[in-house]
């Protein structure tokens, strides 16, 4: 695996072929300037999310109210609901577009190693180790930190290259989330009241048309059909998949199965139903 090869690389002679040790190269980065640039970028993204929530929460409430009060066959209410859902999705799309603009405007902080030839050679060496891997494993953890670090060091591009040539990429929990097109944060019962699912950012897009929801039974009210239905409808046509410890998600086109312990992978539907994924046939 790539991690083992990276460890071996650290046993190499202290000087690289350019006559500089790795520590010497890294010390050429102005850490204080980089920290300030990164902080400015993150502060602007945080400010964007505050504005996003100011628009998102009222829109979510409108959709919930319409779902709670509309009667079967009420065409006018159905039309209003579709318009409200379109507003909700537009707010989500605008968040992602604005976040991309901010990241692009702070490119020197997003990928600082591109501005220094010696540092770029060092990161290129790490990239080559990853490219030589026969398989890559991505663990869980804090999904925002994981996403930022992988992007910061350009690992997202390497993963795309590996995926295109068929190298196995194994991922779980937060690791599975960063491989999707959109990363959704969710917690229905936070300490400060009912939570609202929110978009974090675009993922790497290696697993298309799916929203990963690890530890779904602990973080979502899966018995609340209205909340489940809204979550699945909001991010449609992507399929919302809930995963528990022991799940092994298998996919063949649009068909999802579970190769792990029975009942550890479920699908959330727009009608509010939650169904176990069928077991993968051995």
Describe this structure as you would to a colleague:
There is one protein chain. α3 runs antiparallel to α4. β9 and β10 (274-276) form a beta hairpin. The protein has 2 domains: 31-108; 134-276, Rossmann fold, CATH 3.40.50.880. By secondary structure, it is an alpha/beta fold. It is built from 11 helices and 10 strands. The longest helix has 39 residues, at 31-69. The two termini are 26 Å apart.
| Average pLDDT score | 87
CATH superfamily of the largest domain: Class I glutamine amidotransferase (GATase) domain
| CATH class assignment of the largest domain | Alpha Beta
Number of helices: 11
Low-confidence stretches: 1-20
Gist?
Helix 1 crosses helix 6 and helix 3 packs antiparallel against helix 4. This protein is 50% helix and 14% strand. The longest helix is centred in the first third of the chain and has 39 residues.
Helix and strand arrangement:
Layout: H1 2-9, H2 22-26, H3 31-69, H4 75-105, H5 107-110, H6 117-131, E1 136-138, H7 143-152, H8 155-164, E2 169-171, H9 174-178, E3 182-185, E4 198-202, E5 210-214, H10 216-219, H11 225-234, E6 239-243, E7 249-252, E8 255-258, E9 265-268, E10 274-276
Parallel strand pairs: 1-2, 5-6
Antiparallel strand pairs: 3-4, 6-9, 7-8, 9-10
Helix pairs in contact: 1-6, 3-4
Key attributes of the depicted protein:
single chain; 2 domains; four-stranded mixed beta sheet; two-stranded parallel ribbon; 11 helices; 50% helix; disordered N terminus; 10 strands; 14% strand; Rossmann fold; alpha/beta; 282 residues
